[in-house]
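Supplementary Methods, section 5.1.

A reviewer requested that the exact input to the structure prediction be made available. We therefore reproduce it here, unchanged from the version used in the analyses.
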Amino acid sequence: MPCSDLLSTLCHSGHLLRTNDDHYRRQEQRSIERLLARPRRTYLQEYDLLFRYVSLWLLERGYVLTGYQPHQVLMRVCCQHISPALVKEVVQSRHALKYNSLPPPSWPLAL
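The structure derived from this sequence is encoded token-by-token as follows.
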């Protein structure tokens, strides 16, 4: 599916809203700067960075996340650029780590 069709579909399904407000972009950039300033980041912090970069990517195209299934948006956007199996593994690892207290994967989060 072309990127513009995906974004339109996500907007119509309530996952995204159209925006041109620069406030969201500044907020995401500050969050990224804080995370990058950490000398050693955890897996969850690396995942948060990925999430923030996807948010910036969406903002550059005039969209903002609504809070409705944001990790599904992350998966759908990332699957446009890399292997869906890898994206699924990253998201499932994050979920297992956060909610099941499982140890983080032994590989670094580098999509």
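The longest strand covers residues 16-18. These observations are discussed further in the main text.
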